[in-house]
UniProtKB/TrEMBL annotation:
Gene (name only): deoK
Organism this protein belongs to: Streptomyces radicis
Span list, region Disordered: 267-293
Family recorded in the similarity comment: Belongs to the carbohydrate kinase PfkB family. Deoxyribokinase subfamily.
Catalytic activity from the UniProt record: 2-deoxy-D-ribose + ATP = 2-deoxy-D-ribose 5-phosphate + ADP + H(+)
Active site (catalytic residues): D234 (proton acceptor)
Swiss-Prot/TrEMBL site (Important for substrate specificity) positions: M1
Localisation per UniProt entry: Cytoplasm
Name of the protein in question: Deoxyribokinase
Positions contributing to K(+) binding: D228, T230, A264, R267, G269, S273
PROSITE patterns: PFKB_KINASES_2
Amino acid sequence: MDLVAYTRAAPHRGETVSGREFRTVPGGKGTNQAIAAARAGGAVAMIGAVGDDDLGPRLRAALEGAGVDTAALRTVHGPSGIAHIVVDDDGGNSIVVVPGANGTVTGLAPGDEERIAAADALLMQLELPMEGVLAGARAARARGVRTVLTPAPAQPLPDELLALTDLLVPNEHEAAALTGHHVPRRAAVAFLDLVPEVVITLGEAGSLYAARGVEPFTVPALPVRAVDTTAAGDTFVGALSVAAGEGRPMADAMAWAAAAAAHAVQRPGASSSMPTREEIDTLHTTTQLQDAR
């Protein structure tokens, strides 16, 4: 659950500032990507855990309300995961994640391998223990299912996980932390020694694609005024995975995902800000027509 405080500027260490609004919004990178993909038209099942506290039923209901299958979402004793988020007037954010129930997902439960095997793609993030992420990646690779990894929160990645990843989608800060290269194109090229494809999200500068044997290219972001950038990257990944699963060329899939992210940053909240497929299609088509003029 995202506990979101909106304020003019985020406090510095030791400083107290006044906020203008507070919201609780279902979030977490896994939930965000699941809801984004479902609203973008994907058929989505969620593997994870919530606690038996007051937040657990709300998180489950948010997923189900977006059309996500929660049969594999476990309920465990203890608190659900939470994120303390401060959003400033420029739409920027700072986040502290407390894993809670997420920390119990150290492997797959009965039926999870079959769910993964039936999918076109497995979307993974790093808010679960690494053992759980690796278990999912191994199951996907064994069944020939495409794996998409968002390496966030940024941390050293095991060689095995990288070897099991088909598409890596870091943001520019995560890419720099993982490769030591602060120029995104250099970071992308470095990643290709480890994974076959990478998309680095660049915020207002769009996104950068690189693959082995392909000249890297950038797809621009849409020029909009950001209200809250929380979950913009997750919205992008969810929409990108749906578009790629439909067989769209990567450049078009990235542009479609950029339209989804542009919608999301114009609204407050994480999962509550994510657009429907119709909204994405409309903005994407409008942008293409404007570019053609």
